[in-house]
Structure formats: structure tokens, C-alpha cells
Amino acid sequence: MFKNVKQLTPFSLVLLAISFTMSISQSTMTTAYPILMKNFGVDASTVQWLTTGFMIAMTLVMPLSPWLLDNIKLKPLLNGIVAVFLVGTAVAMVTPVFSGIIIGRLLEGMAVGALFPTFQSVIMENTNQEKRGTTMGVVGLVMGSALAVGPIISGVVLQWVSWRALFILFFVILLGLLIGCQKLIQNTHELKKSQFDWLSAVTLIGFGGILYDISSLPKNGFSVQWWLILVVSLILLTFFVFRQHRLTQPFLNLTVFKYKGFLPGMLLTGISYSGLIIATVLMPLFYQRVFYLTPLWSGLLMVPAAIFLSQLNPRAGRLLNQIGLKKLVYIGTSMMIFGYLLLSIAGTTSWLIGLLAAMLLEGGNAFIMMPAITAANNALTKDLMSHGTALITTMRQVIGAASVVVASILITYFSTTKTIGTALSQTSAWFVLVPIIGLLMTSRLQNHVSKSQMNK
């Protein structure tokens, strides 16, 4: 792993360090929910907005990242993104009211939404095609490990200090990184300035509406309001698509879908992300509700899976050039299938089984997500990579949110007539279908990528 990290430029390492620190915040708050509910007197549906709001804000900004990258020099863009995150963190850190934490989390989500596609696009653009697999394997440390590490860090911090310490920790680390790395930030992306299209920006609310509907489904069900939001969101997104085809310099260049291999690659990254995020949802429930372990131990037991993921990501990147994408995805999906089957068959027998299953679920992610992103972007021309990356990251969030909602619905449904352990096991059995879908898509992705690369 360290050998691969040394191959990256200092600027790429700066991007990775900042992205890792900011992305950890995405999954840290779930462990603090009980404490915040008690301190501020809010219920579970209200405190959930610390995560839901973060994800909606992130998803709304992601499609804007190609325009930001083409119109603002990288150094002021990166500084501005980090500044927004720091302001949000500071607001959440000092606020005396719960609404202040919500506002802070929204600002953090906007910053992360702008950063994720931007840093991936820049690294892809500045890496030769034959080295992208290895480089994006290291990037996978940020995308995968940070999500898995978040609950671990929050579990340890909350064991001894206040929840505000979580925000203080991220603020201090990120501010130090920003100040210390100014000389290393380079303006490597070629600008292609265009006028900001406010109409397109407004219609992007459709993404937020769909994500809100997905997240609110377990609580509100298929109400009239739910259907109304869905219809309005779909109308807005349909208008957005037509608008992009008419603009000479669109926010999102949707011609990326004409490149064979891009669409299945995008969907595979969502499937992979689903396995990772469901592991962070199911495993704490198994540890705490079935085996009655403390939140601290629940977090610590996620460490082996996070380490396993971090070790496999760079290796999967190297293997992409050696054995090809098809075999990598077969390995990854097989690991995920076996992980879900372990939880469904023997998940309630021992926490060691859960630990092994978590390692398989998160480890399988390493063989799918970044290799699929690399292959999808290799199918595109260089000027379309920022647009492709923005679409991939946006859809990954939507698929991830949908997976969490499906898991919540299944757990709630099964637990009405069965024990929580049985409900979690049966939910795991249903999620075996997700990596199976990935398996069915693999041969198509491999063939398309091969043809597109030959055409180049």
C-alpha cells in the first residue's frame, strides 16, 4: 500500500488527505444519535436529518462540480470548498440548538459534494491510463476506508468526551492540512469558462427531492405528499436533461452515456457502495442488539474490516491491469455474496462470524468500486471525465441511500413477527440479490470497455 502511495504526486496526496478527513464526517454522526437525542430532546426521525440532510446537500452539489472545475482555478476552488466545510463544522461545534447542527451538517455536505467528484477528476486527468488502476486503488482508501472508519472514530471519542469533540477534531485537522499544503496545490485543470446556468441549477433540486423521498419512505410511506414530491422531482430532472442537450457547455455533458461501458460501470460502483454502506448499517445492529456489545466495542470490531479494505484497495488497482476488470468484479461480488450468506445463515451464532462477514462485504468493495470507476472513465475522452465522475458520484449516493432505506424497511417488517436477530439475518439474505445483479452486469461491462479502449 505504501509503495503505491509513494507513486502519487505531492498534490495528489494533498487531495487525498483533505478528502479523507472530510469524508470521514459522512458516517461519524450515527454513533452520536442517542446522545444528541437526549441532549436536545429530539426524536429519532429528527436526529436522522444529520445524515439525511448531509446526503441531500452532497447530492445537490455533485452535478455542479464540472462547472466549478471548468470555471474556477483549482487552488481557490479547493480553498473555497474546505472553507465552507470549516464554517459548517464551526457552526455545528458551537451551536446551542439542534437546528444549528443541521445547518452545519448541510454546509459540510455541500463541501463534500463539491470535493468528491473534483478530486477524483483531477487525479484521473493527471494519471496515465495504464497507471489509473493503481492510482484509483489508492483513491479507494478515501472512498471506502473513510466511510468504515467514521463510526470507529466517533465510538472511541464519545466514550470519553463530548460530541462536540468530533467537530473540533475535524476542524483542527482540516485547518492544519489546508494551511500546511498551500504550496503543494497546483492549478492543473484547464479552464473552459462558461456562464452559470441558474435554470439548470434550480432543476437539480430534483435530485434532492428523490433522495428525500427515498430517505423518508420508512416513516411517511407512500403518502400523497410522497408521490407529489416524486412527480415534481422527476419533472425537474426531465427538464434538466433536455436543458443539458440544448446548452453548448452543459452543467453535465450527458453524452457520456453514448460511450459503451460507462453506464454499467456507473451502476457497478453503486452496487459496490451499497455493500459497503449496508455493512456499516447491519454490523452495529448485530453487535449491539444481538450480542449486547457496547457502542465502543461495536466500533472497534469494525476495525479489521476497515484495515482489510484499506489493504485490498491498492492491490485491486494493480490487478486491474494484470487480470482485467471482469475477474476483479467476479472476485468482489463473490466475496459480497458469501458475506451476506454468512450473516443470513450464521450471523446470530457468534460475533466472530459477523466480523468475518463484514471483512468480506467491505473487502469485496475494493475489487469493484474503484476498478469500475477507472474502467468507466477510461471509456471516456479526457474532457468528459469530470462530467462522468460527477454522474458516478451522484448516482452512487442515490443507490446507497436507497439501499439503506430498503434495509430499514426489511428490518422493520421482519422484526414485527420475529426476533431482531432473525430480522437482521433475513434482511442479509435479501441483500444477496445486490451482488448477484453485479455479476450479471459484469460480462457486458468487460466487453464494452475492451471495445472502447480499442477504438481509442
Automatic annotation (TrEMBL):
Membrane disposition: Multi-pass membrane protein
One Pfam family linked to the record: MFS_1
GO cellular component, one term: plasma membrane
GO molecular function, one term: transmembrane transporter activity
Native source organism of the sequence: Leuconostoc citreum (strain KM20)
This protein's record includes keyword Oxidoreductase: no
PROSITE patterns in UniProt: MFS
TM region positions: 48-69, 81-103, 109-126, 138-160, 166-184, 196-212, 224-242, 262-284, 290-308, 328-346, 352-377, 398-416, 428-446
Protein name: Permease of the major facilitator superfamily
Subcellular compartments: Cell membrane
Main subcellular location of this protein, as a coarse class: membrane
Major facilitator superfamily (MFS) profile domain ranges (all copies): 11-446
Keywords: Membrane, Transmembrane, Transmembrane helix, Transport
